[in-house]
């Protein structure tokens, strides 16, 4: 709390003889508020750690700025199909269930196939959901090359990020869940990412009716180039 006191400064507390009490009360209130917020997550732990463990009262921070490698706009154009993804980093998200804080990487996307717009969640970036974890793409898991799925093509020491991935038109299908595994794959000075969209869970077939077995964006690996 020393830094807070320094920020407030003596000038704020002693503006004039009539304002001393008011300013002191304001200062005490601000200090108490900040102290309460800090104490809720006073232990900072890196999101990526060889000895990562869940604990209470922790701020899981993107200490090594791994998420910064992905923030921005990325695009793939192939014939009549195109995929655009925008990633943003969000700091100190408060998980009301665990009480912990965590940095997040969130994203939204637009997928066009044969000139038809299949999915477009990009407007959610300007009109975001009330809860950050409700973004179409969201997560905070950082893994190395040896973690599943093993990456044999990754350079030594490269880290990847795993995010949950959704499709608004098919999120209600039982057992249909997606995960997005992303990594940097720059080439010839051009910034690129490789994303791997994989299925998590098993689709449930009810009364013999076969529902969709994939999202509009097919399972697979894609290479996108930074455009912004």
In the sheet with the most strands, the strands line up as 3-4-5-7-8-9-10-11
What ranges have pLDDT less than 50 throughout 5 or more consecutive residues? Answer: 1-25, 27-35, 37-41
Q: In sequence order, what are the helices and strands, one letter per element?
A: HHEEEEEEEEEEE
Rounded to an integer, what's the Rg over CA atoms? 23 Å
User: What's the total helix number?
Assistant: 2
Global shape = globular
Helix fraction by DSSP (H/I, runs of at least 4): 10-25%
Structural class: mainly beta
Sketch the major β-sheet: 8 strands, antiparallel, barrel
Instruction: Write down how many β-strands occur, each being a DSSP E stretch of 2 or more residues.
Output: 11
């Amino acid at each position: 709390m020393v830094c807070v006191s320094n920020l407030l400064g003596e000038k704020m507390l002693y503006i004039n003889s009539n304002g001393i009490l008011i300013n002191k009360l304001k200062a005490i209130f601000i200090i108490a508020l900040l102290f309460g917020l800090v104490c809720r997550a006073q232990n900072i732990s890196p999101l990526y750690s060889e000895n990562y463990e869940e604990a209470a009262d922790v701020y899981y921070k993107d200490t090594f700025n791994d998420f910064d490698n992905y923030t921005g706009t990325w695009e793939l154009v192939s014939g009549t199909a195109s995929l655009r993804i925008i990633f943003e980093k969000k700091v100190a998200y408060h998980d009301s269930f665990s009480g912990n804080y965590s940095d997040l990487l969130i994203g939204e996307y637009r997928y066009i196939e044969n000139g038809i717009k299949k999915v477009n969640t990009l407007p959610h970036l300007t009109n975001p959901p009330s809860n950050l974890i409700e973004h179409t793409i969201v997560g905070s898991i950082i893994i190395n090359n040896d973690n599943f799925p093993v990456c044999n093509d990754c350079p030594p020491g490269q880290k990847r990020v795993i995010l949950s991935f959704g499709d608004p038109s098919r999120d209600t299908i039982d057992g249909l869940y997606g995960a997005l595994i992303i990594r940097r794959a720059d080439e010839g000075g051009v910034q690129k990412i490789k994303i791997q969209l994989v299925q998590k869970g098993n689709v449930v077939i009810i009364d013999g009716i076969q529902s969709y077995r994939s999202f509009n964006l097919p399972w697979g690996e894609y290479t996108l180039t930074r455009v912004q």
